[in-house]
């Protein structure tokens, strides 16, 4: 497989707290990578560094031949890295379809100033985009809700909408931040089945931060484990499950390893 992203020596501090401390990370095209760790381990900081929310103090993030460390989020998104957020961010008074249309704004070939001069061209492009967005809605199971306002959607449907909006950006890498947060077990299974369907349909590379370990263990090819801003382990789900450093990071030294392995597998 081809390496699609390579992170070297990534550091970020907030005051005296090292939220990311000399992290190395590489990702292969087509891979499904999980990022796990206990609360405060640096997962969200790492995500925010990759997507431009934070600027690293040190280190490089090489993607598509560019060091994107310090790029603004919209520039990173336009180069093919899309993400969802743990806290759902959407235009609640707009329709489901219009929320997706906003998601693909960086893909259009016109701006506000060109509208008066090429209305037919713009109308044709809008028609094509709407058809593409409807195809996404069909894939994620929300086609029947295209003209319903986002405020009327359930939490599970909003999670799907956030996923669809990220897909609308036509990414190469899709980063999912706690995609199953707040969902019932049945809806978690449904969501992850749709995620894998989207991966296959659009040829995506996935990075998933998720506190529901069952999701990561059953979905990911490889898992990176963070603790106190450092990467403490990396490998297949089985390798990570049996890593003593991971067991200690999650539950300390009070429990026997076999007990913790059962919890990590459940």
Helix content percent band: 25-40%
Radius of gyration: 20 Å
Structural class: alpha/beta
Strand order, main sheet: write it out.
6-7-8-3-9-10
Major sheet attributes: 6 strands, mixed
Averaged pLDDT, please? Answer: 87
Give the uncertain stretches in residue-range form: none
Net shape: globular
The total strand number stands at 10
Distance between the amino and carboxyl termini? 31 Å
Fraction of residues in β-strands: 15-25%
- What is the number of helical segments per DSSP (H or I, 4+ residues)? 10
Order of helices and strands: EEEHEEHEHHHEHEHEEHHH
Structure, explained:
The protein is 39% helix and 23% strand. The protein has 266 residues and is α/β, with parallel strands linked by helices. A hairpin with a 2-residue loop joins strand 9 (222-227) and strand 10.
Task: Indicate the topology.
Elements: E1 3-14, E2 17-28, E3 32-36, H1 43-50, E4 58-63, E5 66-67, H2 73-78, E6 81-83, H3 96-103, H4 119-140, H5 155-167, E7 173-177, H6 185-202, E8 205-209, H7 213-219, E9 222-227, E10 230-235, H8 237-241, H9 244-251, H10 257-265
Helix pairs in contact: 3-5, 4-5, 5-6
């Amino acid at each position: 497989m081809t390496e699609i992203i390579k992170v070297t020596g990534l550091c970020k501090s907030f005051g005296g707290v090292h939220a990311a401390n000399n992290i190395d990370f590489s990702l292969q095209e087509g891979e499904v990578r999980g990022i796990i760790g206990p609360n405060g381990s640096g997962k969200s900081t790492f995500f925010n560094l990759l997507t431009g929310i934070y600027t690293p103090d040190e280190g490089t993030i090489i993607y598509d031949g560019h060091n994107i460390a310090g790029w603004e989020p919209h520039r990173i998104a336009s180069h093919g890295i899309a993400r969802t957020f743990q806290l759902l961010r959407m235009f609640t008074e707009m329709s489901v379809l219009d929320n997706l249309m906003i998601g693909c704004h960086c893909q259009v070939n016109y701006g506000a100033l060109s509208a008066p001069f090429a209305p037919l061209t713009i109308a044709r492009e809008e028609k094509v985009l709407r058809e593409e967005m409807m195809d996404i809605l069909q894939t994620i199971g929300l086609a029947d809700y295209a003209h319903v306002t986002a405020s009327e959607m359930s939490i599970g449907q909003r999670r799907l909408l956030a996923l669809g909006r990220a897909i609308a950006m036509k990414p190469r890498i899709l980063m999912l931040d706690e995609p199953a947060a707040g969902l019932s077990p049945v809806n978690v299974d449904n969501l992850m089945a749709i995620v894998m369907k989207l991966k296959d349909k659009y040829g995506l590379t996935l990075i998933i931060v998720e506190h529901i370990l069952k999701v990561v263990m059953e979905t990911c090819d490889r898992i990176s484990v963070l603790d106190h801003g450092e990467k403490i382990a990396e490998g297949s789900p089985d390798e990570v499950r049996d890593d003593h450093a991971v067991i200690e990071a999650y539950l300390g030294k009070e429990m026997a390893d076999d007990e913790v392995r059962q919890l990590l597998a459940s």
